[in-house]
Design brief:
Shape: globular
Structural class: mainly alpha
Strand content: under 5%
Largest sheet: none
Radius of gyration: 15 Å
Oligomer: single chain
Distance between the termini: 52 Å
Helix content: 40-55%
Number of strands: 0
Number of helices: 4
Number of domains: 1
Length: 86
């Protein structure tokens, strides 16, 4: 009897780590960051990393609170870049 392969997935804490790293990266979109950096260089750190699929995109809205915190903290800090992310 053939065995069923479990779909690759990423847990919420790993996704939060990726969102935080994205906000301090130079990439303009999370999709580019994920496809061009995470999937290329961080496979050892995230062994269950799925490809960038609609399922992964569905998890992103759950992390709006993290994005709001990052934007709020950035707006409170005096900076020469005036509003640009870290």
């Amino acid at each position: 009897m053939p065995t069923r392969v479990k779909a690759r997935s990423i847990c919420e804490s790993e996704l939060i780590a990726l969102v935080v790293c994205y906000h301090i990266s130079v990439y303009r979109t999370f999709k580019w960051f994920y496809q061009r950096h995470v999937q290329k260089y961080w496979l050892a750190e995230f062994p269950g990393l799925p490809s960038y699929t609609p399922q992964l995109r569905q998890q992103l809205p759950q992390l709006r609170c993290i994005q709001k915190i990052l934007f709020y903290n950035n707006s409170q800090r005096p900076s020469k870049t005036s509003g640009a992310l870290l």
